[in-house]
Specification:
The protein has 7 helices and no strands. The chain is an all-alpha fold and about 200 residues long.
Length: about 200
């Protein structure tokens, strides 16, 4: 997966163009990411650090390392947007570490319920509003990594961030959707021909 911002957002945008589905993703994707990080905070510290380098609620467990990795890669893709998102990821991770260390299994049960509800809502959004399978069925790693950043960029675009990029992406996504719909029509016509319809 190359860290080409436009190419990555174009891929993801071609699966998410319906406003209702985008709204579902704006709500659910951050919750899926944060609950996933919360699950990962249940691991012990993976790197021993001297006490002077330890940060409260950010031990070097799998959750913290994941948040740092995501934030770093997002900053490589788009320094300003990634730089704004990275501290939010670390704050969510610190809170997740606090929840798992304070409430243990109870925090995990609530997170699991929220996690599952959000996944179901996203699949419903794709089936009902997009009429297309989710991006994760075509490229799981790319979709899991891009979804939070795509949602963040959608929010920034709504606030007026980089209108020229948004215009280019909207145009490219419309072309991708048209190609997808045309191939779907051709597939349907070929099936009808094979069935003798």
């Amino acid at each position: 997966m190359a860290l080409n911002l436009e190419k990555q957002l174009q891929f993801y945008g071609s699966y998410h163009h319906n406003p209702a589905n985008i709204a579902i993703h704006v709500v659910c994707v951050p919750l899926i990411l944060v609950t996933g990080i919360l699950f990962a905070t249940n691991t012990p510290p993976l790197v021993p650090l001297p006490e002077t380098l330890q940060i409260p609620n950010l031990p070097p467990n799998l959750g913290t390392i994941t948040a740092i990795l995501y934030g770093s890669l997002y900053m490589l893709m788009e320094p300003v947007a990634g730089g704004l998102l990275a501290p939010l990821l670390l704050a969510a991770t610190a809170y997740s570490n606090h929840l798992t260390s304070t409430y243990g299994a109870t925090a995990n049960y609530w997170a699991l319920g929220l996690h599952l509800v959000c996944w179901v809502a996203q699949f419903v959004g794709h089936g009902v509003f997009e009429g297309r399978a989710p991006a994760l069925l075509d490229n799981l790693v790319q979709a899991l990594f891009l979804a939070p950043f795509f949602v963040w960029m959608e929010i920034l675009f709504l606030l007026g961030y980089r209108p020229e990029l948004r215009a280019r992406l909207d145009s490219a996504v419309k072309k991708e959707i048209a190609k997808f719909r045309e191939s779907k029509k051709l597939d349907g016509a070929a099936k009808d021909k094979m069935n003798g319809s």
